[in-house]
Structure formats: C-alpha cells, structure tokens
Please model this.
Amino acid sequence: MVAKFDLSDDSVVVIIGTGAGGGVLANELAQKGVKVVALEAGGRYLPDDYINDEWDSFGQLAWTEPRTTSGDWRVAKDFSGLPAWIVKAVGGTSIHWAGASLRFQDHEFKTKTHYGNVDGANLLDWPIDPAELAPYYDKAEAKLGVTRTGDRPGLPGNNNFKVLEKGAKALGYQDVNTGHMAINSIEYDGRMSCQQTGFCFQGCKWGAKWSSAYTDIPRGEATGNLEVRDHCHVARILHDDKGMASGVEYFDKDGNLQMQKAKIVCLAGNSIESPRVLLNSHSAMFPDGLANSSGQVGRNYMRHTTGSVYGVFDKPVKMWRGTTMAGIVRDEARHDPSRGFVGGYELETLSLGLPFMAAFLDPGGWGREFTSALDSYENMAGMWIVGEDMPQETNRITLNHEVTDAYGLPVANVNYTDHPNDRAMRDHAYARGAAIYDAVGATRTFPTPPYPSTHNLGTNRMSEKPRDGVVNKHGQAHDVPNLFISDGSQFTTGAAENPTLTIVALAIRQADFIADEMSKGNI
Amino acid sequence: MATKVGSKGLTRRQLLARATAAGASFVVGSGFMAARDAAWATELSALKPTTFATLVQMARDIYPHDKIDDQYYVLAVKGYDTADAAPEIEAGIAALDAAARGKGFANYLETGWERDRVDLLRGMEESPFFQKIRGGLVTGLYNQKAVWPIFGYEGESYSKGGYINRGFDDIDWL
Model:
C-alpha cells in the first residue's frame, strides 16, 4: 500500500531527488519505519520503457532544462547549454550510470594529508575515516550486487575489453579485469543476469543493472512509509524563525506551487541542482542562501578529470556489443607524484553508438580527418579516463539571474576551469591509453575531450569545521541541523573512482544516523 | 505541402527531360530536382533548386563519406526547405557562392576540387550559418537509421536478446 501524506503533515522526512542518493535514502528510512515524501522532478520510467536508441533515450531521460556554462573547459564551448548528462526521472542518474562500483582508496579520503599543498587547489581531508565507511561499502555492494565482491563472479569480457586487456598486459599492467560492476553476472536479488545488450547508458531493459528506479523505490513504497511524488520540481526549502528547515516549496505536475511541511529535509538533486536549490532558498535570515554561512555552497565543483581514447584497428572490434563499462585498468589509480601530478586515474572500457560517436568524438570537428575516423567505427575500441580532479573554489555553481527556467527560477551556471594538475593527469592518461591500443596494433588513436559531466561532485562538501564546508560527516548541514545533503555534492574530494557506490554507502549510513537521531529526539 | 518524388516514380528519361543541368552533381528543374543518376529526387517548396543543390554539396563537404549515397545528405538537409528557414539558407549559400567567386570560381558547386571547397568552408567556419548546418548534420546525417549499417553499427539489440549468444566476445584476431 503506497503511502499518501498530507501537505500539512510536519512529521515527514522530505527527500528531494530519487537517484542513487535520494532513492536509497528513501527506502532505507522507509524500512526503518520513518515516514518519507520523496519529490522527484522527472517522471517514472521502468525497464519496459527504456529505449535502445541514443538520441531517443536522451530525449526520454536527460535533464534538458536550461543551464549555462563558463570557464575554460571545452564543454562550455561545444555544449554550452548542456554542462552535464544526467537524468530527470524517478531513479535519477542511476538509470543512466554504467554500473562501475569501486571503493575509494584509503588515501583518497585524506588528500590534504597525502598530497600536501597544491597551489590553487582547495584540498581538504574528509571528516570520515576509511574504516568508518568500510561496513557501509559492504552493505552497498550487497545492495547493488557488485561483481567481484562477496561471492559474486565477474562479468565475461566483451570484444572491447579483450582489446583493452591485451594492450594493457602488453605494457605490463597487472590490475586488469572486467570490473566491479553493479550489473548481475548471475541472477541476484530477483534480477536477471546481463544479456550483453549494450545500451547500459540508456537504462537496462533487462533490469540486470542496479537502479533505484526498480529496486529501492518500489521496495520503499511497499512498506507503506514512502510516497514518491513525480513531476514535482522543487523551488526552495523553507525555514522557521529558529533557522530550522520547515518545508519544501515545489511546482507540481500541473505547475501549481505547493508546500510540503517537513520534520527533516534531505537534498539529493545532484551537485548542480542541490546547490541551486540552497542558493534559491535565500531569505532575510540566510541572505547568501541556506546553509551557506561558510560561503562554500556551490564551490569546489568537481567532475573528474575525464577524456576518452579511441583506437582504430585494421579489423573489426564492434565495441558496442556487450556491457559498456565492464573493463578496467587500475594500475594508474595510485598516488604517485613522480608522474607529474597528484592523485590517480582509472581506465575503463567505454563505447558510444554511431550517433553519439558523431556528436562526441571531436565536438565541432568536420572534414575528412573526422569522417575517416567514423568510417572506421566498426574497427574502433574505446576507453574512458576517470581521474581525481582538484577541488577549486572558483569552479562553482552560481545562480544565473539572466536565465530562468519554466517556473521563473534562476538557472544554474556551471563554471569550470582545469587545474594544471588535471591537465597533466589527462595528458598522461591520453598517452598511456594510446600506448595500450598501439600495443595491439592500432593504426590511429584519438584523444577525445571530456563529455558533458556525468560525475558531478563536491558543491556542498563535508568538512570537520563549519568554515571549510557545508555539511558534517553525516551530511548534516553545519548551519541547519535538520537539513541533510544526500548526494555526491557532499564529497569533500572526488577520488579517482566512479562515485555511485560511495553515494550509496553514504546514503545507507545517513539513514542510520537520521533514524537514530530521530529516535533520540535530537531532530 | 510538397510531396517527395522518388526516382521510382519517373523513368530516367522523364527525369532528364524535365530537368535542366545546374552544378556538378545534380540535375535541377523548376521546383524539382534529382541526382544525375536518378538515385534520388525531391520536390522543393521554398528553396531555389540551385541553393538546395549547393547545400547538399556543402553537407557532403562537411561530413564526406564516399560510401554514403547523396540521398542521405539530401534527407539530412531537407528540413531547411521551409518558408521559415529559407531566407537564412539562401543568404548563407549566396555568401558561400560569393566567397567562391572571390577565389576565381564560378560558384561553390562548380568549384571542382574538394580541397578548394573545404578552403571556402574554412573561411566561414565561425559563421552562424556554417555552425547551424554543421550542427544540424550531426543528428540529421548520423542519426538516420538507414546509414548505420553502412558503418557496421547494429543499433537496437534488446529485441534480439542482446549479444550474449550473438558475438559479444567474438573477436578472433587479437
């Protein structure tokens, strides 16, 4: 029996966003008997609805409301209105994600300690110790059914992986496998195993990949403690005269402004929309935005040091066949400043279909250099670089008052400029990626620039001291004790790993904390 | 609304009979045009035939694939043949022809070598007109399902059961 709560019910926890962070938190709280209203800007789409077609799927799932960009990153030039490729739907970007589920390396929780002072970087240690998060990583891996953890076997390697593996091993890399993937290699948790269909980014039509859309959300609803309201676009979080969060204003599916009262508010709208909501929630008491006494809301936006390397061979690869990202080289993920940069990067298999390859291989490119590459599409292999980028205070989300959305709210501007460390890392990764393919006989390689961001991190970061960040080690706002951040925006630093597993682990941990604090009467 | 006229509806001789030659690649008539080899034909509602022929050549010069037939480039730019879009397209193509004349050619279409046409395009690469045409082609050309097999791309696979039994790991040359 799906719950239905009254707008005036001020005993509920209101969660904004239903992706890997918000969707998991909603279910975990509902399982503990906490009443939850989850507000989701998008609609409901399940595996039967997903589309094996890149542009059609993009039209179905992507967040395409206006955003603006600035800074020297190439995305601002090539995709000025699309800084991020993330999803607007019940389940959020957990529908689109590739499934790569890696734990952070221990030192990545303490980058200030291990990397030291890096000019221009706003490095800070996480206020969490790796040992503290380890049991929650265990729970997250079990929830998502991550391969190569527990007793779950790895996925089989597809053609694209075999090319990567052979080249990487020829160069002496050791830590090469088909990845830790939240994609079933065997039937698990009522979901079937991967059918090697490709189109992982377009939503898994078999449900073999974990998404909160068809796991945590329906399970939370089945408890009778969770009401998910879709097509509800949040405008602002309200507070009372004591400075405590008191409710959430949103536009419902008919465009009418509603207000849901709340005991606790949890914000999980991703690292672009979450700070936007806080900044749009400014008031006489909080003139710079809610929870922003540090001035850090929106700052330290991170998106990983990314890029791709595609290699062309004299024979077919058909890289689009099979699991998109089940392939990884981890040897470069270590922190080894002798390479000329701090932090490290992962190399992971990646493929795009022909339509997206045309859009992203060399955005703006044309002429025979470009088209002769596409002529070899069938003979291409591809990999993605995922590296730790430096947090910088000036890389930030701000409100653009010149541009408003359909509801008249100022949109987010995303400003990003690479740090010299990011550029050094990317250049190193481009060279190593090309060397991997050259070792297998590539006739051409392409150092492809970053796509619109899928890993959006850090804009409401955790800090031990209130002056250094927005939330504490539980994701609880330093300034507003009944306001929580429950998505990747709470990341203090980005690490080299795909972020979803850590977002899920933090959400499970946060649910424990919130339920405990509620039972103690602290909030 | 103008209807598309396919080459199957007319004999090659009929096509040639009602057409007048204009340009390197096309036989163009009044409001109607066809490829010289009758591989495709289309009816125009707003653009001048020579303008459309030049636009198709421009599209091919931006994204040249020798294995892709003209019909796909025609389809990729046919959407500009509307009363709303036509003025900007006519002006853009007129500028392209003017640039060609400035380099001593009769017009863009009659500039014989691709490298010379590409030089003309490079000269207007930053213009809104060029960027509009190029940007539109990214989806207009490459998102045509009919061109995917020409590149070997197989498209949708769910209805076929994915590739688990259809060669996801069939690479044999490593």
